[in-house]
Amino acid sequence: MDTGTYGYPKQGVKKIDPSYDVPEGVDIRGRYDEEFAKILTKDALKFVAELQREFRSHIRYALECRKEAKRRYNEGALPGFNPATRYIREGEWVCAPVPPAVADRKVEITGPVERKMVINALNSGAKVFMAFQWISPWRSCSTGT
């Protein structure tokens, strides 16, 4: 049996309804109906096909590199940094300062929504709190709430 990219059996090309507008040279494998046709328009499919045609050799190379890395890891090797990027890691550089709008990202997540939990959240110092409103089916059945 012929296998696909990830070792799964290749799916046969299904004939699609001729009313769908699919670019020349594009085969739809799998479900493609009116729901998908709204998103996967002819232009969208043409764009994806052009990307695939332009970058297919890069994708194949990346997949081969993954296979080789997996083989090495299976043999006990450990992952490491790419030697080609050493100059970046060892270079002298700094990041821009964090913008004030995102500098304080503290959020208190609380639940269930009860007076004590809301008071604790408001007193936590966080600028935002999220309350988790969930009523368990068991609680509903056993207490009638």
In percent terms, what proportion of residues is strand? 5-15%
Counting DSSP E segments of at least 2 residues, the number of strands comes to 2
Largest sheet: 2 strands, parallel
pLDDT under 50 segments (min length 5)?
none
Question: What are the salient characteristics of this protein?
Answer:
6 helices; 145 residues; two-stranded parallel ribbon; mainly alpha
Give an overview of the whole structure.
- There is one protein chain.
- With 145 residues, this protein is mainly α.
- It has 2 domains: 1-93, no CATH class; 100-143, no CATH class.
- Helix content is 43%, strand content 6%.
- The chain has helices spanning 34-39, 42-74, 86-90, 100-103, 115-122, 137-143; strands spanning 107-110, 128-131.
- A two-stranded parallel ribbon has the order 1-2.
- β1, α5 and β2 form a beta-alpha-beta unit.
- The radius of gyration is 27 Å and the shape is extended.
- The termini are far apart.
- 0% of the residues are buried.
Summarize the structure.
The chain is 43% helix and 6% strand. It is mainly α and 145 residues long.
